[in-house]
Amino acid sequence: MTIPRILVVDDDADMRQMLTQFLRQQGVIALPAATEEEVRAHLAQGRIDLILLDVMLGDENGLEICSRLRRDQAVPIIMVSTLSADHQRMSGYDVGADDYIAKPFNPQLLLARIKAVLSRTRRSASLAHRRNTKTFRFDGWTYNAKRDEVLSPAGVHVALSKRETALLQALLANPHIPLSREEIAAALDVSGESTAEASGRAIDVLVGRLRSKIEAQPKDPRILKTERGFGYVLATDVTVDDT
């Protein structure tokens, strides 16, 4: 099972340390950050499964950071704040937060909310893909999510199966980030495939089929590479445009 990687964003060093320590004790990989710049750096360096984002960050505003992140990031965000009035909570949801929890809070309650958001996000991932209206470009290729259409660098339409499309979507959402077979299996699971059917050898076969369609030399791939002993990585830059 993949261990969740959670980014704890708070400008209060004591609160940041307390939360990261508590989450680590629960078996979670907790990473600290104090500014939007540090948040962006973590997102660029590796997979982040959820962000705990404090509303008041000194000279920065958590709501504004959340709004900017939503322009190019689908990572779940839980806002944390001493402000708990209904209209303040709604402000968090309006900028794209997945949940909002008020300080002070019971750490076990926070943990339950984190688990709920992660579970809900995984279950709704396939719906998010179907609602996606963006165009992804990678290594000369184009994937139009609204039309569910793949074009080669030569402009030729390439047909993908539903599972191949789900795999491509997961990779495009995580360029340069190695994905384990378990993580890929989870992405296929929310697309209607059972984890048993989508795991192990079946993942390798699926990757092979996708490579046969997007790689010039499938046996020597340069786009979809193997991370030996772990899984696979989309080893190319991805640009995203609204369609």
Summarize it.
The protein is an alpha/beta fold. The protein has nine helices and 14 strands.
Q: Number of folding domains?
A: 2
Helix content: 40-55%
Low-confidence stretches: 123-131, 190-198
Kindly state the number of beta strands: 14
Question: According to CATH, what is the topology of the largest domain?
Answer: Rossmann fold
Quickly give the structural class: alpha/beta
Rounded to an integer in angstroms, the radius of gyration calculated over CA atoms is: 19 Å
Gap between N and C termini: 35 Å
Q: Helix and strand string, N-terminal first?
A: EHEHEEEHEHEHEEEHEHHHEEE
Strand content: 15-25%
Mean pLDDT: 84
- The CATH homologous superfamily of the largest domain corresponds to Response regulator
Biggest beta sheet summary: 5 strands, parallel
Just name the CATH architecture of the largest domain: 3-Layer(aba) Sandwich
Describe this structure in words.
- By secondary structure, the chain is an alpha/beta fold.
- The protein folds into two domains: 5-128, Rossmann fold (3-Layer(aba) Sandwich), CATH 3.40.50.2300; 133-242, Arc Repressor Mutant, subunit A.
- The chain has helices at 13-25, 36-45, 62-69, 86-94, 107-131, 162-172, 181-189, 195-198, 201-214, and strands spanning 5-9, 29-33, 50-54, 56-57, 60-61, 77-81, 99-102, 134-138, 141-144, 149-151, 179-180, 224-227, 231-234, 239-242.
- It has a five-stranded parallel beta sheet with strand order 2-1-3-6-7, with helices on both faces. A four-stranded antiparallel beta sheet has the order 10-9-8-14, with no helix packed on it.
- A hairpin with a 4-residue loop joins strand 9 and strand 10.
- The chain is elongated.
